[in-house]
Amino acid sequence: MGKTVAITGVSSYFASTVLPLLAADPGVDRIVGIDLVPPRTKVPKLSFHAEDIRSPKLAEILQGADTLFHLAFVVAEIHDKKKTFDVNINGSRNVFSAAVLNGVRKVVYTSSATAYGAHATNPLCITEERPLTPNQDSYYSLSKFRVESLAREFFAGHPDTLFTVLRAGLCVGPRTRNMFHGFWTRKASIFPGGRAPHLQFIHEEDLGTALFSVYEKDLPGVYNVASDDAVSSFWVFEKAGVRLLKLPAGVLKKAANAAFALRLEKVSQGWLSLSEHTIHMSSEKFKKEAGWAPRWTSEQAFLDYLAHRND
Q1: pLDDT tens across 199-210, in order?
Q2: How far apart, in Å, are the Cα atoms of 283 and each of 17, 61, 210, 225, 229?
């Protein structure tokens, strides 16, 4: 008998990277998808449920699932931060509780490189053992940290559930149409002066194979997944054709907060804080234990995005 795989955030960009691989696997009989909106394209084997991850119905929906990918998350910034943390934190708690209640054997949570925080003291090739020091003014960085913390404590009390965390680099590729796409399609933008950060990407194809590897193999613990290299933020904007104006970081953050409050901009200062300093991870642990390797460098991944951004 084949397996049932459940995915929260099934309509998300992250989910789109692994869904075709799961659908094509003869060992998967059914995919249970949970999201507020259905996927844009038809997915074989998918049974879709329009539910909030905070819903008590998750306990019923996850019945029979063997593996759960928890991908649902508030990524794009909204003004209601109380709702943001309620969905990200309490929603995740509800997902994990429903999984344990149903005896789901394996739970996979996609965290982020931002859980390490963007700091001037960051070394190159950050390993999984480095303490997490999220940026306190970033709801995203802080949310990723808090979910990891609650999950670590929760699953310590449920050792029969195999729990895996993937801390992913910034995902890009032909289908990137998120808020970063909005930044990279502008004619001009403003950047914190006095900074020279680099970005570590992961191509959507590589993220998909990484997620599928965790489905195929039992890999408990925490793993970094990203391309090995990183590219200058200035190179990224230059290649994208975006002209940069540099302002002092403090001034720029105040301006961003004001513009966000007036709904003139889509992000406030938290995303600027994450762009000030390099977060560069080592993926050697995952390479060794999963037998995975990125096919795309950060440079190649971004150029592939650019080649398809007008599609």
Answers
A1: 999 999 999 999
A2: 19, 34, 11, 5, 11
